[in-house]
Design goal:
It holds the Pfam family YjiS-like. InterPro entries: YjiS-like (IPR009506). Residues 35-56 form the YjiS-like domain. This is DUF1127 domain-containing protein. There is one protein chain. The protein has 88 residues and is an all-alpha fold. It has a domain at 32-67. 67% of the residues lie in helices and 0% in strands.
Length: 88
């Protein structure tokens, strides 16, 4: 009975170690992709359709496959500087 519990504990520790190393490896890959994009010139980034502010989001979105849905949260966006009344 004690041996079975000990074996389960060893397996649990092994799975936790595997999850930890997989998470660290995934994080290092994401950081490497971000660093590669940050080394690009603005011209190269614009060819990809990115600006420097979009790099972190673009890499994380591609890795996780999730894009934020701002329209569903806030509704349609109206411009702040609309001229609703025109001068006559």
């Amino acid at each position: 009975m004690l041996a079975n519990g000990f074996g389960d504990a060893i397996l649990w520790i092994g799975r936790q170690y595997d999850r930890l190393t997989a998470g660290i490896k995934a994080n290092l890959k994401l950081r490497a992709a971000e660093a590669q994009l940050h080394r690009m010139t603005d011209r190269e980034l614009s060819d990809l359709g990115l600006c420097r502010a979009d790099i972190d989001f673009a890499v994380r979105e591609a890795a996780e496959g999730v894009t934020p849905a701002f329209d569903y949260v806030a509704g349609p966006v109206t411009l702040a500087n609309q001229n609703l009344r025109r001068a006559a």
